[in-house]
Design brief:
Blueprint (H helix, E strand, L loop, with lengths): L1 H7 L12 H14 L2 E4 L2 H8 L4 E3 L1 H6 L7 E2 L6 E3 L2 H10 L2 E7 L12 H10 L1 E2 L8 E7 L9 H8 L10
Parallel strand pairs: 1-2, 1-5, 2-4
Antiparallel strand pairs: 3-4, 5-7, 6-7
Helix pairs in contact: 2-3, 5-6
């Protein structure tokens, strides 16, 4: 009868995420509002707390997309996923502004987060947004002027169609 006891006892799940995404929503509101593209390492939290995201950065999620390749569509969310430094470089070059929000424990994570080569691309093209240390989040924002070119049309469309962000940004 001891096995039935374990089955019937309630399982306690954490009620809060390991990072303070709700507070981050309030702190990051100005950047969320003006970013042309929102990148994340956690699509679920981004949808729940920010009501949005455009691209998830995760090799694991890329492998679970319909195509199993870069910029593949995750059928669960309708959003697309990337994992390589080259894909991130293309996204940054195709949007005048963007915001990256991710878990600190996914920073430098090859499979379930943003890998070291992609971090180098992100850090060199953007500036860090300071958040309280106990939030354990990494946040970066980029903004630049200039045309993104016609070769970016497909990437802009992929990254903004599901989220409803401005997909007509030149």
């Amino acid at each position: 009868m001891t096995s039935a006891r374990y089955v019937l006892e309630p399982i306690e799940y954490p009620t809060q995420p390991t990072t303070e995404w709700k507070e981050a929503d309030e702190l990051l509101e100005p950047w969320l509002d003006r970013a042309d593209v929102l990148l994340t390492t956690n699509g679920t939290y981004s949808l729940y707390y920010f009501d949005d995201y455009d691209l998830e950065i995760s090799k694991n999620i890329v492998s679970q997309t319909a195509s199993g390749s870069e910029f593949g569509r995750d059928t669960r969310t309708g959003r697309h996923a990337i994992s390589t430094a080259q894909s991130l470089r293309e996204v940054i070059s195709c949007f005048r502004s963007g915001l990256f929000v991710g878990h600190a424990h996914q920073w430098g994570h090859e499979i379930n987060g943003i890998n070291d080569p992609a971090i180098e691309v992100l850090v060199s093209a953007s500036r860090k947004i300071e958040t309280p240390r106990d939030w354990r989040m990494k946040v970066y924002y980029w903004e630049r002027s200039g045309d993104t070119g016609t070769e970016c049309r497909q990437i802009r469309q992929l990254a903004t169609t599901a989220s409803g962000r401005n997909s007509t940004s030149p």
